[in-house]
Amino acid sequence: VYIDIKGDDIGAFVSEAQQLIAEQVELPAGYSISWAGQYQYLLRAVERLQVIVPVTLVLILVLLYLNFRSMTQALMVMGALPLALVGGFWLLYFLDYNMSVAVGVGFIALAGVAAEFGVVMLVYLNQSVKRHQPTSLAELRDCVIEGAALRVRPKAMTVAVIIAGLLPIMLGGGTGSELMQRIAAPMIGGMVTAPLVSMLLLPALFYFWQGMKIKAY
User: What is the tens place of the pLDDT at every residue in 1-34?
Assistant: First the structure.
């Protein structure tokens, strides 16, 4: 039996259909039901993503630790990632896109950009602290403001370039456009929240972390 669905994602449809069949259909002895086609491809892709995504996150954490030589700073970047992805979910909801493999790829790409935002922000903050060697919370606050302010213009330029590059994909049509739009949507939506998280949340976390060191002395 071939089924064509509109307005719903394959995974949700098959899950609901399986539940209804289990409740309402009695199969005679020797009969069985299997789901194939695009649903089968979806299951394979989900299985791969369940392995790839955790491995990717662990690799990012290891690379961050090797870069900063500080697990605290690595965890700052990783902890801010979920908040940075919120904009992608907002845009998906606004466009009425369902979760899919293409959307998952878009979120992986967004997570990479958000991590890069966090890394560069912490590099500037560390440089500012190293340059001024603050001995009080007031001096530390000035260092954090100086380091964060230096990242505003480069970050704004990065966001503008990414949005300008992806908007034609979102507004275009033709063969393959639906797939590409679902990859681009999380990136465009995330360009609202990812820069805000890196410019507002990370400097605050860095300030509290360094402030604890100053209080300890």
Answer: 777 776 666 777 787 888 888 888 888 888 888 8
Helix axes 101-132, 71-84, angle to 10 degrees: 140
* Residue type at position 190: G
CA nearest neighbour of 195 among 159, 165, 171, 141: 159
Q: What are the DSSP calls for 41-104, one per residue?
A: HHHHHHHHHHHHHHHHHHHHHHHHHHHHS-HHHHHHHHHHHHHHTHHHHHHHHHHTPPP-HHHH
Contact 125, 144 (CB under 8 A): yes
In angstroms, how far apart are the furthest CA atoms of the chain?
A: 80
pTM score, whole prediction: 0.76
- What pLDDT digit, counting tens, does each position of 134-161 carry? 888 888 888 888 888 888 888 888 888 8
- State the Cα–Cα distance between residues 115 and 112, nearest whole angstrom: 5
Which residue from 148, 132, 151, 150 is spatially nearest to 140, judged by alpha carbons? 132
What DSSP element (H or E) covers 166? helix 152-171
